[in-house]
Amino acid sequence: MFTVSVRDHFMIAHSFEGQVFGPAQKLHGATYVVDAEFRRAELDPDNIVVDIGRATDALRAVLAALNFRNLDDDPAFRGRNTTTEFLAFVIYERIAAKIAAGELGPHARGLTSLRVTLHESHVAWAAYEGQLGP
Amino acid sequence: MFTVSVRDHFMIAHSFEGQVFGPAQKLHGATYVVDAEFRRAELDPDNIVVDIGRATDALRAVLAALNFRNLDDDPAFRGRNTTTEFLAFVIYERIAAKIAAGELGPHARGLTSLRVTLHESHVAWAAYEGQLGP
Amino acid sequence: MFTVSVRDHFMIAHSFEGQVFGPAQKLHGATYVVDAEFRRAELDPDNIVVDIGRATDALRAVLAALNFRNLDDDPAFRGRNTTTEFLAFVIYERIAAKIAAGELGPHARGLTSLRVTLHESHVAWAAYEGQLGP
Amino acid sequence: MFTVSVRDHFMIAHSFEGQVFGPAQKLHGATYVVDAEFRRAELDPDNIVVDIGRATDALRAVLAALNFRNLDDDPAFRGRNTTTEFLAFVIYERIAAKIAAGELGPHARGLTSLRVTLHESHVAWAAYEGQLGP
Amino acid sequence: MFTVSVRDHFMIAHSFEGQVFGPAQKLHGATYVVDAEFRRAELDPDNIVVDIGRATDALRAVLAALNFRNLDDDPAFRGRNTTTEFLAFVIYERIAAKIAAGELGPHARGLTSLRVTLHESHVAWAAYEGQLGP
Amino acid sequence: MFTVSVRDHFMIAHSFEGQVFGPAQKLHGATYVVDAEFRRAELDPDNIVVDIGRATDALRAVLAALNFRNLDDDPAFRGRNTTTEFLAFVIYERIAAKIAAGELGPHARGLTSLRVTLHESHVAWAAYEGQLGP
């Protein structure tokens, strides 16, 4: 298996509902440093996993829609706790949609899975990984 | 698959038996920076993999039993080389026992696997990953 | 010159006033990973710069007063932009006050300066350093 | 599963062919920080995954054959783009050959897979992982 | 003293002249991860050291003029070894010129010094720091 | 001011005397990741701060004399707590002696200061910096 990973970040405010979250039930915030790992079984004709320029742009575009926001106000997340692991899934879904739409180039349809990791501090991070393709 | 990871560390003395270890056969020591990665297929009702506060406490408790010790004196390790990879397994087993005992909360029984990584320097690390649950 | 540094973190929401801040004028948030570097010319009688346990506790206590908060609601910061560099100064002042009050032990009065660095992402950080003592 | 990882680096010049590479079609270069992760199901009789000294030597030897070179001049890569993901595969193959040849010791034949990761910057990396053994 | 730092990177080919460089006399290359630390005694009226957006843009523009190049072909470096420490100085000079030209905003003229660090691998880096202003 | 830094590590056992050390009074150990930063005002005729090969060798030689040891048994440290900050000073002195003896090359006598940093974990480090030369 071959992989290529790119890193970017975004900065948001949010709060959580549920006693399990303790003081994080109050409005606070986070910087998420995000790694997107693209995977496939064989390299494409250019000897690459994915066009790293387009992969970087896709990640940036997905994060731009979240960056400098209070996620409590985002209708997409109504009634859901925007935990680190859940946000990893959201970003996975949005990048996967771009791949399916051809935004990462025609060869990117050969990608088989994607892992998205969000680092919330030097001592905690979370990830979602899932399949890609038809 | 969803994951949540937390990091902590411990500092121990030990020595190894066997020519393969060269100068590490003498009494020396290490700082181990430890990452525990908790995994499950679906998020729990709070939209989380595990209560990160309890996960952090469990890791700290397991490391506290090893920290500031000479592992050569620990009866639990008699006749075993306390290599980085073996210690990763020991820590996996001890965290897994806490999960099974309910110490990470009732939803933590939905965790499916656990990976424990020990960083012994900026150029070497080791890990054990194994299944969880019944 | 001798130094000892310890690291911790906090997570807050805030917004900025002023066109220079662009989209950061909206309510958003950040994780700040904080390094406190304690400095002195000579080691104390225990051969240390500072009791690292007390230094860690002092940093944690200062950050706990900021953690899981919306800084826009904190009267201490009314009318001030809580930029990364300004927060570094605030944390410097609060740790310096603890040193002056003897909370880091009697020998800590021999500390000569303190540098506080706040990492807001993998590509941006800010610091304040200033003198300590009479 | 148990793993042991070691890190080293090499520094090369190269250029790429294909419009997808944009400005990287010109002669440029890279530092690659390389992680080799060795994996097996059970520890060997010394309680290790692999002799870390021999693993480190094997990685260094493989990288030495690439280090301080212009890869465009290397006959082994004629007609191939020496992308990060492709170089990860090349290094995987060369380490795997050393394992098969017994250079990592007799117990290393119990290794089941190998993952090689090349970090090309703080925001991009690539990997290849494949099976080992008969 | 207050500081703000931003990070970016560039990738180049080059070779060195002089026996001290050993195998690095051959054409090879490097990724340089670059940190630019801006310093001043007091914050500006917006409570900042420098407009971080403009600082990021200035660093990117300076690195873009070097990125994806063979530095041996650059007339600006004829007869000079483009060592890591020398490149740190070159980047310092070019950012300093932008500050003097007002490209980082009018308040940036209050900056007093600048440190530029180039990381060439996980085990080696170099820096230049110098004064700014009239 | 120009600087060049190199990184290596060593692994030791030791214990401390004094109530301030709490559980670290027991025999334990540490990995120290060590950064040596060499400084000078102007580059030498090769456009470098110091021959990085010789600097790396000097650091390795100094650490080899400490590596895989129980520092409690080292006569050089009798009656002294081998704290992180004290070890930084010891390593500074030993590298400085090599520079004075010409082991880093004749131009290395132009070095003006040296900073040695020891990282004992992901959340704690210590340093000593001092002058060099006649």
Largest sheet of chain A: 5 strands, mixed
Strand neighbour order, sheet with most strands of chain A: 3-1-2-4-5
Q: Termini distance of chain A?
A: 19 Å
| Secondary structure tally, helices of chain A | 2
Radius of gyration of chain A: 16 Å
- The outline of chain A comes out as elongated
Structural class designation of chain A: alpha+beta
Helix content of chain A: 10-25%
- Report the portion of residues of chain A in β strands: 25-35%
Number of strands of chain A: 5
Mean model confidence by pLDDT of chain A: 97
H/E topology pattern of chain A: EEHEHEE
Low-confidence blocks of residues of chain A: none
Quaternary structure type = homohexamer
- State the largest interface: A-C, 24 and 24 residues
Q: What's the quick description here?
A:
The structure is a homohexamer of 134-residue chains. Chain A is an alpha+beta fold and 134 residues long. In chain A, α1 crosses α2.
What does this structure look like?
The structure is a homohexamer of 134-residue chains. By secondary structure, chain A is of the alpha+beta class. Chain A is 22% helix and 34% strand. Chain A has helices at residues 52-64, 84-100, and strands at residues 2-14, 28-40, 69-70, 113-121, 124-131. In chain A, a hairpin with a 2-residue loop joins strand 4 (113-121) and strand 5 (124-131). In chain A, helix 1 (52-64) packs across helix 2. The first copy, chain A, is elongated and about 50 Å long. The mean pLDDT of chain A is 97. The A-C interface holds A 7, 9, 11-14, 23-24, 26-33, 67-70, 120-123 and C 7, 9, 11-14, 23-24, 26-33, 67-70, 120-123.
